[in-house]
Specification:
Blueprint (H helix, E strand, L loop, with lengths): L2 H11 L16 E7 L18 H8 L2 E3 L2 E2 L5 H10 L31 H7 L3 E7 L17 E5 L14 E6 L10 E3 L5 E4 L16 E2 L2 E2 L6 H15 L5 E6 L7 E4 H6 L6 H26 L6 E7 L5 H4 L15 H4 L3 E4 L7 E3 L3 E2 L1 H10 L15 H4 L10 E6 L2 E6 L2 E6 L4 E4 L15 H15 L9
Parallel strand pairs: 1-11, 1-13, 2-15, 3-16, 4-5, 4-11, 6-8
Antiparallel strand pairs: 2-14, 5-9, 6-12, 7-8, 9-10, 13-14, 17-18, 18-19, 19-20
C-alpha cells in the first residue's frame, strides 16, 4: 500500500464510531455501482431537468459529488459496460461495437475471458459479489457473469428485456413498428389504451426476449414483477444477506431502455403530460428514481449507509427520438461521439466520508473502477488500468482532473478531450470545440486552430496505435 493511499484511507475512514463497530467489523467499504440504461444528461433534476421529479437521485447527488463532466468510454451499452467493469478502454481488447440480437449468443462474442473484471478482483480480495440486472457482455457459457467474478447473478444476458411478461399487464407499452394496422404511418393506440404503435423510426421493436430469459444464476426464473421492482428487491435482499462482510453489488437497471413500458401508478402520476411517449418515459424514470430511493433506504436501515460507496452513472447518452430522453444542453445522443452520446449523469456518494460538492473536472467511468479497487485493497496486477482513483477529488484534496487526456474510438467516430478542448470526427475532417464556452459543440474552431488540431490529433493517433482491432462489427 502506498503512502498516498494510506493517508487517503485514514482521511476517509478515521476511527469507526463505537455504535457501528458491531455492524462494520471491517475497514473496507461496501461498493455499489448503480447503472441506468440510456438516461440522458439533462433529465435528472440535479442536472437541470424540470419536467420529471427525481428526488432520490437528486438527494444522492446533494449528499455527495456530482460531476458535470462525467464521461463513459462509448456511446452505447455493451462497450461502455466493458470498460466500466474492467477499468480499461474496451478498444484495448477488441470490444468496440455493440452485440445485439442473435449476435449476443454467437461464439466468441463477449468480454474476453483474459480480462479481469472489478468483480474478479474484489472477490479475490474477500468481497461478496453480485450482479443484478443487465449483463450484455456475452450470452454464451464462457462469458456468464458467474464465470466473471460474480458470486450471484439475477437478470438477463442480452441488450434489453420487456419489463413484464406477456401480455404485459399493469403497464402501457410503446412499440416501434414499420406500419400501422391500417397500413398507414404515424401512431396507433389499441382500444384499451394499453399499447401504442409508432412508425416514426421506421423499424420494428427488437425481439428483446428471444433466447433471453430472466435468470437466477444459470436457471430461468419465472419472474412476474416489473423488472425495475424485481431488481430492486433482489438488491435489497443481497444487502441484507451480506451485512456482516464487505460486498460489491453491480445493480444494472434496464430502465429507461426500450421497450418503453410505463407502470400504471406512474402513468397516473404523469397524466398531465399530453404526449403519450413522453408520459411513458416519465413513468419509467420516476420508477427508477423511487427504486434507487428504496435501495438507499435499505442501506440506511441496515446501518450500512456510512460504510458504502455508491456510484451512479448512465451507460451512455439518451436516444432522444427513441425514448424522448433529453441530453440538454449537449448536442447529439446515443451512438454519437458528440457530448450528448458520451457525457452522462455521474454521481458519487458516501455519507459522512466524502465532501458534498459539484466537480467540473473531466472524469470517466473507468475511474469508478479504479476507485473501487483502491478502497477494496484489491490486486490490480498487471498494472494496466486506464481508470484513475477519484479519492483525491472526493475528499477535496485537489480540484485537478485525474486525466490529462481522454480518448474515444468507435470505428470512424473518434474523439479526444484535453482540458476544455475537444477534437472530434465522424469519418471526415477533425472538428475542434472549446467546451468551456461551447458545451453544445456548435462552433467548429478547427480552421483557426491548425496547430492545436495537429497536436490533439497526434495524441489521438498515438493512443490509437495502442488499441487492437475490433473482435466483431
Amino acid at each position: 500500500m502506498t503512502r498516498t493511499l494510506t493517508l487517503l484511507t485514514a482521511l476517509l475512514f478515521g476511527p469507526l464510531a463505537a455504535p457501528h463497530a458491531a455492524d462494520a467489523p471491517h475497514q473496507r467499504p461496501n461498493i455499489l455501482f448503480i447503472v441506468a440504461d440510456d438516461l440522458g444528461y439533462g433529465e435528472l433534476g440535479c442536472y437541470g431537468g424540470k419536467e420529471i421529479p427525481t428526488p432520490h437521485l437528486d438527494t444522492l447527488a446533494a449528499g455527495g459529488a456530482r460531476f458535470t463532466s462525467g464521461y463513459v468510454t462509448a456511446p452505447f451499452c455493451a462497450a461502455s459496460r466493458a470498460a466500466l467493469l474492467t477499468g480499461r478502454y474496451q478498444t484495448r481488447f477488441g470490444f468496440e461495437f455493440n452485440p445485439i440480437g442473435a449476435k449476443n449468443v454467437a461464439p466468441g462474442i463477449g468480454l474476453p475471458v483474459e480480462e479481469k473484471t472489478v468483480a474478479d478482483r474484489l472477490r479475490d480480495a474477500g468481497y461478496a459479489t453480485a450482479l443484478v440486472g443487465k449483463w450484455h457482455l456475452g450470452g454464451t457459457a464462457p462469458y456468464h457473469p458467474q464465470r466473471r467474478g460474480f458470486d450471484e447473478f439475477f437478470g438477463f444476458l442480452h441488450e434489453g428485456h420487456y419489463f413484464v411478461p406477456p401480455p404485459w399487464p399493469g403497464v402501457t407499452t410503446w412499440l416501434r413498428r414499420k406500419t400501422l394496422p391500417d397500413g398507414s404511418q404515424g401512431r396507433w393506440t389499441s382500444p384499451d389504451g394499453r399499447i401504442v404503435w409508432s412508425t416514426h423510426l421506421g423499424y420494428h421493436e427488437p425481439e428483446y426476449d428471444a433466447d433471453n430469459p430472466i435468470l437466477r444464476g444459470s436457471q430461468p426464473a419465472d419472474e412476474r414483477a416489473n423488472l425495475t421492482d424485481a431488481f430492486t428487491r433482489e438488491s435489497c435482499e443481497f444487502i441484507a444477506r451480506h451485512k456482516a462482510q464487505p460486498w460489491f453489488l453491480y445493480l444494472a437497471y434496464n430502465a429507461v431502455h426500450s421497450p418503453m413500458q410505463g407502470a400504471d401508478a406512474y402513468m397516473a402520476k404523469f397524466a398531465h403530460i399530453e404526449d403519450i411517449q413522453r408520459r411513458i418515459f416519465a413513468a419509467m424514470l420516476a420508477h427508477l428514481d423511487d427504486s434507487v430511493g428504496t435501495v438507499m433506504t435499505k442501506l440506511r436501515e441496515s446501518g450500512l449507509e456510512e460504510n458504502t460507496l455508491v456510484f451512479f452513472v448512465s451507460d451512455n447518452g439518451g436516444p432522444t427520438k427513441e425514448l424522448t430522453s433529453s441530453n440538454a444542453p449537449l448536442r447529439g445522443g446515443k451512438g454519437e461521439i458528440l457530448e450528448g452520446g458520451i457525457r452522462v449523469p455521474f454521481i458519487v456518494s458516501w455519507k459522512g466520508r466524502i465532501k458534498p460538492r459539484v466537480i467540473d473536472a473531466p472524469v470517466i467511468s473507468m475511474d469508478a473502477t479504479a476507485t473501487a479497487l483502491e478502497l477494496g485493497r484489491a490486486n490490480t496486477e498487471p498494472a494496466n488500468l486506464d481508470g484513475r482513483s477519484l479519492l483525491p477529488l472526493l475528499i477535496g484534496a485537489t480540484d485537478a482532473t485525474p486525466h490529462d487526456t481522454l480518448f474515444w474510438r468507435v470505428g470512424k467516430k473518434n474523439a479526444v478531450r484535453q482540458g476544455a478542448w475537444k477534437l472530434v470526427r465522424d469519418g471526415g475532417a477533425w472538428r475542434l470545440y472549446d467546451l468551456d464556452h461551447d458545451i453544445g459543440e456548435t462552433k467548429d474552431l478547427a480552421p483557426g486552430e491548425a496547430k492545436r488540431v495537429a497536436e490533439l490529433s497526434s495524441l489521438w493517433t498515438e493512443w490509437d496505435a495502442q488499441q487492437v482491432e475490433p473482435l466483431w462489427k
